Amino acid sequence: MATTNKIDYAKALIKAGLTRELILKITSISEYEYNLIQRELASA
């Protein structure tokens, strides 16, 4: 899965309300990437 697709997928899962641990397992993104996505969504 390309990084862009992983990030878009993670954004959708965050918006859907899944837990951080589950999102990290499903998408295989790092905690750092997860935190960046959270900040981006919070500022949008």
Features:
globular; 44 residues; mainly alpha
Describe the structure.
This protein has 44 residues and is mainly α. It is 80% helix and 0% strand. The chain is built from three helices and no strands. Helix 1 packs antiparallel against helix 2. 9% of the residues are buried. The model has no long low-confidence stretch (mean pLDDT 93).
Secondary structure blueprint with pairings:
Layout: H1 3-16, H2 20-27, H3 31-43
Helix pairs in contact: 1-2, 1-3
What proportion of the residues form beta strands (DSSP E)? under 5%
The largest β sheet comes out as: none
Question: How much is the average pLDDT?
Answer: 93
Number of strands: 0
**Unreliable segments of 5+ consecutive residues:** none
Radius of gyration: 9 Å
N-to-C SSE string, H for helix and E for strand = HHH
Count of helical regions: 3
Distance between the termini: 25 Å
Q: Looking at the structure, what is the overall shape? A: globular
Helix percentage: over 70%
Q: Which class of secondary structure composition applies to the elements?
A: mainly alpha
Entry summary:
The chain contains 3 helices and no strands. With 44 residues, it is an all-alpha fold.
